[in-house]
Amino acid sequence: MSAAAGMAPPERMAFAPRAPDQTALPSRAPAAAATTAHVCVGVATRGRPNEVTKLVERLRQQTLRPDVIVIACVNRRDVGALVEGDDLKILIGPAGLARQRNRILAALPDDCEFVVFFDDDFWPRRDWLATVVAAFHRQPALGCITGNVVADGILGPGLSYADAAQAVDHDSAPTPDWQIDGYSPYGCNMAFRRSAVEGLQFDERLVLYGWLEDYDFGARVAQGHNRLIKFGAAIGAHLGVKGGRVSGRRLGYSQIVNPFYMRRKGTMSTRAAVRQVLRNVCANAAKSLSPEPYVDRRGRLIGNFIAFGDLLRGRCTPERAGRL
Q1: pLDDT digits over 261-277, tens only?
Q2: Domain 22-238 has CATH 2.60.40.640
Q3: CA angle, residues 324, 214, 55, in degrees to nearest 5
Q4: Labelling 323: which of 75, 173, 211, 225 has CA 20 to 30 A away?
């Protein structure tokens, strides 16, 4: 899941199989090893036809082109002029990030070996898919790879496509060759080995924007004894487009209830849940006095307080965010 505008992405590395560190990767496999892979890219989108069209164009320029791109949208307007073809499938159905990603999982072709989820406003370097697939081939125990987001517009007013291209395509520095173990997936760019997610679904009780749905899904992948890493060589930028997001009140509610719900179901530790909640409440309270123009801080803070009220009454129902 992408973080909401003006909010740092949720803390990661919360279920490491061993102490997280940075380690050099084995020498790269020959490029030909990746060309035999069957890769599916899934994109959940709503209200961003321009962004999803640009992403599809970018995916068709990858050095390893995906076998199929599956777009889960809410209505036909969400995809603009895109039409289905041999490499593009469009699914229309109810809104909700978890629901839309589950439609993608259900539509994967039988021969799919790796499934990648990108946000519609993500800009991967042209070798992102080839780089990630090569890492999966080199390390059979890997179940999930999160890429290296070198520029993230979610932390501010957002990035332009020129900004993203500058960060991703015109970096003259050597490609970083490190990985961090035990790193939970960041939903704007995450890849899974198909066998590691067989039978799993995103939790649809985490409604709307699905705050922490990627963390929850990654925890269940890790429970299957699969390794999860952040991979320095899989470079991309996240534009952090502000349109198409949920209200501040609804998001603020999810910021509090979702971590405690996940703690109850065993996909987040008590310590991690408390840290998430404190981090969000402190940020919303401090910045509500002089909020960023692109963030509804006061709405989020109101949602925080509504959620605390529910928790004090013994209610832990993340789906209530959809009714606020």
Answers
A1: 999 999 999 999 999 99
A2: no
A3: 95
A4: 75
